Request: fold
Amino acid sequence: MEYQHSAGEATSPKSRSLADIETLIKEEFQEHKESMRKSLFHAKQIGDLLIEAKRHIKFGHWEEWVDQKFSFSVRTARNYIAIAKSWECLRGCLKSRRNSKKALSVYAVNR
Reply:
């Protein structure tokens, strides 16, 4: 079996078996899933800290504070807060097999 590169030249596939490729795909998928969970957890942590910081900032000055102190936007800060506020529900969704669609819908409702 030969594969065509975009340049049109034929090449032979690497010597990995299909079973080896399937194993690698499954491993990469697990790594990807774990990194998404970690990323979401960090977003939740940022959201919790932003909620805590809001208590220290005079009313009406929070957006200015975010703009001055961080490289992310006020909108992103609000998204972090929404993740933190939705955390229990998001966490439950992430444990289920049909996690991504449900988690995204929970997040969207709480934005």
